[in-house]
Amino acid sequence: MLKVLLVDDEPWVLRGLRGFFASMEDRYSVVGEAANGRDALAAAQEKEPDIVISDIRMPDMDGLEFVAALREQGMKAKVIMLSGYAEFEYARQALRLDVENYLLKPLDRRELREALEKIEAEMEKETAKDLGE
What we know:
- It is built from 5 helices and 5 strands; from the N terminus they run βαβαβαβαβα.
- By secondary structure, it is α/β, with parallel strands linked by helices.
- The chain has one domain: Rossmann fold (3-Layer(aba) Sandwich).
- Strands 2-1-3-4-5 form a 5-stranded parallel sheet, sandwiched between helices.
- It is globular.
- The two termini are 21 Å apart.
């Protein structure tokens, strides 16, 4: 079971993500939620999620700063960045931080499912490589 941390300052987005993952609770466990990057960083340190789904624009600490702090602390969580903005600069900054995917709001459930499947496949390859298979 993969641990997921949800990060967004809009309550309706968190509700939607929570509902999305409730339908797949055999594969994913939502271990925490946060409304800004500062709270998300604390939650990530405590819960050690496998996957983080984070908004890019939030108060206190935005998603890019949050992911940069994750990386600085050596956390290897796979990150899917969400944005209501189709601005190339945001996407470019996210790629520099080794974000797995950049999805636009309103969120397409199919795209999110595909992004998660890609992450799962990548994690399986990494595990096999670590085991010397």
